[in-house]
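Example 5.3 — Innexin
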Amino acid sequence: MDLFAGLKSFFRTDTTTIDNNVFRLHYRVTSVILIAFSILVTGRQYIGDPIDCISKDDIPSNLLDTFCWIHTTFSLPDAWYKKVGEEVPYPGVDKYTPGEKRVYHAYYQWVCFVLFLQAILFYVPRYFWKAMEGGRIKNLILGLNSPILPEETKTSNRKLLVEYMTSNMNNHSMFFLWFVMAEIMNFVNVVGQIFLMDAFLGGEFSTYGSKVLQFTNWDWSVRYDPMIKVFPRLTKCTFHKYGSSGDVQKHDAMCILPINIINEKIYVFLWFWFVILAILSGLAVVYRGFIVFFPRSRFIVTRSRARLSNQDYLESIINKCKLGDWLLLDLLSKNLDPLNFRDVVNDFARKLDGKSLDNI
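Solution (predicted structure tokens):
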């Protein structure tokens, strides 16, 4: 709990809602998950040293560990499918012959940094939208999110809000455009990060989750764990040094990578999470397309959030609004107390009909 105590600030509830649930899955849930994973892979007290190498030669273990961590370890693809215990000691570990193909594993040095970079990228659309929104919704609430408010204050604040909405009618087009851009950024970001992790893991990430699912259905006697190929727990390392006669000597070492026990679980989870998030983000973009091209859908959406409001008044307002005005009204419906929002809708509809609010 001490390890993740610093993340608790991410779970504070915002007093003002300026986005939707899918949006929050990006900057709040996914960013926290990635930062937590980044912290986890650096916690040596939980997984031990990230690498431990052994050699039959008289080489200091600390020196060998540092060398193999810096210069990377490797596996032999031809030994991945050999029988463990008879032909090889571990999948991918075998005697190396010159010219044989090697697969080098250098990614584990950068996992914590890449995860942290990904967390930042997931927060970028949120930062962009907050900068463009500029605290507008928070300033327009005027205390009307509270169900208990003096009647005089409630009436004056409601009047101020209606006056703002009336005088700025059809002036919120960029407000809507910025929000749509932020939603598209969310979708592009999550899809792009799938390709980023695929490149980071040598082209293995795109099919990683599906192979893990297939692996669980294989017969135990013949199945091969695909996670071992991507995140081997035992690899090889070649160390060169000068001998007593001045000749270069080659020493083979086997290295245990305890950190990959954590890494494989992290990336299995991220594969499924990113696929689900990409689908939800794609649906959010499609939903926004319906909002743009089917005006009736705007009324249906807002009506579902404002059931106490006069439906005729609400429909009349939305029919006169452009997309930016509708988004502003929809966000207000999420933040205002339902009774106060009902009164705002009534006043706004009457104001648009040319009636004075002083006579209501």
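Remark. The radius of gyration is 29 Å.
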